[in-house]
Here is the input.
Amino acid sequence: MDWKLELVAVPVSDVDRAKAFYTENVGFNLDHDHRVSDEIRFVQLTPPGSACSIPIGMGIADTPPGSVQGLQLVVSDINAARAELLERAWRLAESRSSPGGPSSSSAIRTATAGPCSSCRHATKVAG
Here is the structure.
């Protein structure tokens, strides 16, 4: 039997800002944006090529915005991923190889749309 992780809720303080961040700045696909009521809105976003999506919205998670930590986007080519983010006007720290050279897959830390005191290595250039 396969056990698959397909949704990881990411609480955000501003749904529209987070939606724009993930779709326009990072390149996630917008799967759904559905307002159930004035208190409930469900937005589902999926990274290209991923089987796991993130739902953001109102009334879908009881945890505070910015509380999800430790998520990683895994890419097969960290240099190509870095180049794509640079094309989207990101300012990035230099990429570093792990001891023994680059691995077959590399990880990029994700950031929620909001302040993150530990995320100093990647910022979106305004404009």
Remarks:
- The chain has one domain: 15-124.
- The first helix runs from residue 15 to 26.
- Helices lie at 15-26, 78-87.
- The first strand starts at residue 29 and ends at 35.
